[in-house]
Amino acid sequence: MIEHSVHLGPDSRLLGIVSEPDAEAARDSAPTTLLLNAGLVHRVGPNRLNVNIGRDLASRGFKSARFDMSGIGDSNRPADEMPYVEQSVADVVDAMDSFSAMHGDERFVIIGLCTGAYNALEAAVADDRVVGAVLIDGYAYPTLRFTVTHQTKRLLQGWRWARFIKRKLGLLEIAKKKQPDDMLVFEPEDLTKAEFDDRIVGLTRRGVHVHFVYTGFGPQSYNYEGQLFDAFPHFDRELVTVKFIPGATHTFTLPTHRDEVVQSIADWFTTSFGSREPATNGAGGS
Fold first, then answer.
1. Residue 143 phi/psi, 5° resolution?
2. For 154-183, what is each residue's pLDDT tens digit?
3. Which of 22, 168, 221, 261 has the fewest CB within 10 Å, making it most exposed?
């Protein structure tokens, strides 16, 4: 594996690190993977998750790049900045344009966690060069089974009953949370269930492979493996897959959970895009 820095975009403001497979292992026509920021987290990802994913893919013959979006990490802000979501999509498109110009890459996979998943979905919808997306702890929609499981778990938690009784007896005051004035928070645009449905169905009609990863402690409402397909039973299961890691935190704090999500992405990537033989003439390098 070889890693090197790269400047992306028409004004070279986006800084990234490319993980390239060795020449003999490189797959000449496999898509290039773009790993996005998770909110304001530097391009390495929470607990270096993007580094682990990118290097693992390179070891399997797939090129990837983790890069900072505009104004995050080591990337500069553009001269004419757009609203956050629009700017994020523009950054991804600029990155794809740069790889197309430098290496002739025309097929891409986008991977994002949390806010990165929201941005990855919008970029995939916006550009036909995207052939795959991995959305980690992105949008999720509750089902009847989710609600029953969630409420049952709450009812069995003794500390909730103790707090409820103390509050009723006037022994406990619930402090109102204050939002610091200087905290920068990215709130994703809420997608209705129908809007989300339209996006995923539209992608699969284009032949795009979409892999969802959910943790048991993410910000969205997901608590069992089959929830996505219960909510959207018509999704094409040849193109849409799900991995649920119930014990994992949203930022994959434990190494075992990071290994699990990396392996899940590797298996999905190899199944979806790994049928081509590795190049023997050095194709796919830098």
1. -125, 175
2. 555 564 445 656 666 666 666 555 444 433
3. 168
**Res. 280: pLDDT tops 60:** no
Residue 141 has pLDDT above 60, yes or no: yes
Q: How far is residue 149's CA from residue 11's CA, in Å, rounded to a whole number?
A: 50
| 13 pLDDT more than 90 | yes
Neighbours of 9 (CB within 10 A): 21
Task: Quote the percentage of the chain above a pLDDT of 70.
Answer: 82
Cβ(148)–Cβ(72) below 8 Å: no
Q: How far apart are CA 208 and CA 201, in angstroms?
A: 10
Contact 45, 38 (CB under 8 A): yes
Measured distance CA(127)–CA(133) in Å, rounded: 12
In a domain, 149, yes or no: no
Distances (CA, A) of 100 to 55, 141, 174: 21, 36, 54
Residue 108 amino acid letter: F
What pTM, to 2 d.p., does this model score? Answer: 0.84
The encoded tokens of residue 136 equal: 């980690």
Question: 260: domain range?
Answer: 2-144+191-273
Q: What is the DSSP letter of 279?
A: P
What are phi and psi for residue 88, nearest 5 degrees? -65, -45
Nearest by Cα to 249 from 57, 113, 73: 113
* Pair of tokens at residue 165: 């009784």
CA pair distance 79, 102, nearest whole angstrom: 23
Q: Is the pLDDT of residue 259 over 70?
A: yes
CATH number (domain holding residue 104):
3.40.50.1820
Are 69 and 110 within 8 A, CB to CB?
no
**Residue spans of beta strands (DSSP E) within the chain:** 2-8, 14-20, 32-35, 64-67, 108-113, 130-136, 209-217, 240-249
Look at residue 19 and give its three-state secondary structure: strand
State the total domains in the chain: 1
